[in-house]
Amino acid sequence: MKYSKSAxxxxxxKMKDNILNWAENRGILESATSLTQLAKLTEELSELxxxxxxxxxxxxxxxxxxxxxxxIILANLCGLDHDDCLAxxxxxxxxxSGNMVNGVFVKD
Length: 108
Description:
The chain is mainly α. It is 70% helix and 7% strand. The chain is globular.
């Protein structure tokens, strides 16, 4: 049986492709480095912290989206695929056990 991608998988793949095309068209993929993208990620993380502190759901959504864009570009600059990074992380965390401590999951 041939596997067919769901509508969400196709939409996600197209979005990632659109992001990388956007980054290429603006010279980001040519000029940026992993360290400059890390600095950008830190900037976006700061915006997320502020949005969470202000309980501003729209800004939280924007910051998470911006961070995802930066991570897709960063993965590309490192010769990696964002989806592969995510799958790799899930493969590890799916086998973890642990407990919640003060609202944070602490692995065994």
